[in-house]
Amino acid sequence: MLIIDKNNLTASVEEIVNSVKVFDIHTHLYPESFKDLFLYGFDELVTYHYLIAEALRVKEIPYTDFFALSKKEKADFIYDTLFVERTPISESCIGVLTTLNELGLDINCRELDVFREHSKNYSRKEYIDLIFEKANIKKVVMTNDPFDDDEYNFWKNNVELDEHFNSSLRLDYLLNDFRSARYLLIKMGYNVTTSLIGLTKNEIKRFLVDWIKKTKSIYMAVSLPPDFTLPENSTRSILIEDCILEVSYEMNVPFAMMIGVKRQTNPELSIAGDSLGKANIETIEYLCKKYNRNKFMVTMLSRENQHELTVLARKYRNLFIFGCWWFLNNPTLIKEITTIRIELLGLSFMPQHSDARVLDQLIYKWKHSRRIIADVLIEKYGKLLNLGWVLTYEKIQEDVERLFGKNFDDFLLMEL
Ligand SMILES: [Zn+2]
Question: Which domains are seen in the chain, by residue range?
Answer without folding.
Answer: 142-321 (3.20.20.140)
